[in-house]
């Protein structure tokens, strides 16, 4: 097969989809990655090098994940159309909201190419916790309409990571239950995460965005680092993402002045997960967060929200503590409970590792995706 992967930016592909491309190459298939413009100046060079070192060729196109300039986006869409027509893939596998939309439209124009859409989240408009403006509501409705056109392709499989997104997708015109596959996340390499010695470390492993719960974590951590000076409170994630929810750098500087460590983008997160006693992700909405799977694999206790996606990736009161969305007080109380109770956090860490071994292995996820490829090739 010739497989084309299309995503918003290389950073996401390197951390969430590269294993699929490597497996495809090992099976003798030809692969090529098509990406939009960088989402982060600090992440993209590392990601492109990692992808190319794995033997996956990359073509960069003009569209941007957060772009709203119609000229730029139309140019990027035309570039994608021409690039895929030249490549002539048997299967196109897209992920991330804008890439799914653009690739679905292009695949229709190319004669309903076989498509795998991976819904790893529905984008900023669907994570907003406040009232939408008229413009935002209009864009959301237009997005739904265009998705219905893109997903009307009769030769498709749509991967969703949680039941809420499955419900959203199956209500679009042209999508039936048989088109949708529920696959819990992108999986993790369990061998990279060992039951090593845990340190007094609380880890926030995510992009520094408001809808990832960065402010809730920071507010809690600033209060707790005064009470528990032996504990480290660490943010490991870039702050330079092209995203309207990005936290301004002066605000992050205030956090670090108050005792929080911000490491920025970290190329190899496994040692941090293996050292962390607690992993905190107070996100507003996710698809199926890989960092919570990695926390489980590393035997870390979790603090996360009762939010779509998050609540699917850990077991409340067994592998971690669940808190309401946008409630820094609840985050602080949950973190303090785990800091004070070593037996509880170690018990949750062991339960998390068992959960990861049973559900989150990367090999299991990749095997299901290749099952979708095989079924599509028969259509």
How do you describe this structure in short?
This protein is of the alpha/beta class and 379 residues long.
The oligomerization state is: single chain
**Beta-strand fraction estimate:** 15-25%
Q: Could you describe the largest sheet, including whether it forms a barrel?
A: 7 strands, parallel
Strand-pairing-aware structural class: alpha/beta
CATH architecture of the largest domain: 3-Layer(aba) Sandwich
For the secondary structure, the number of strands is 13
Q: How do the strands line up in the largest sheet? A: 3-2-1-4-5-6-7
Structural summary, described in words:
There is one protein chain. With 379 residues, the chain is an alpha/beta fold. The protein folds into 2 domains: 2-187 and 361-377, Glycogen Phosphorylase B (Rossmann fold, 3-Layer(aba) Sandwich); 190-359, Glycogen Phosphorylase B (Rossmann fold, 3-Layer(aba) Sandwich), CATH 3.40.50. Helix content is 45%, strand content 16%. The protein contains 15 helices and 13 strands. The protein has helices at 10-16, 18-26, 44-53, 70-87, 97-109, 134-150, 163-170, 214-227, 249-257, 270-275, 290-297, 310-313, 328-340, 342-359, 362-377, and strands at 2-7, 30-35, 58-60, 91-95, 114-119, 156-160, 180-182, 199-204, 232-235, 261-262, 276-281, 301-305, 320-323. Helix 5 (97-109) packs across helix 6 (134-150) and helix 11 (290-297) packs across helix 14. The longest helix is centred in the first third of the chain and has 18 residues, at 70-87. The chain is globular and about 60 Å long. The two termini are 14 Å apart.
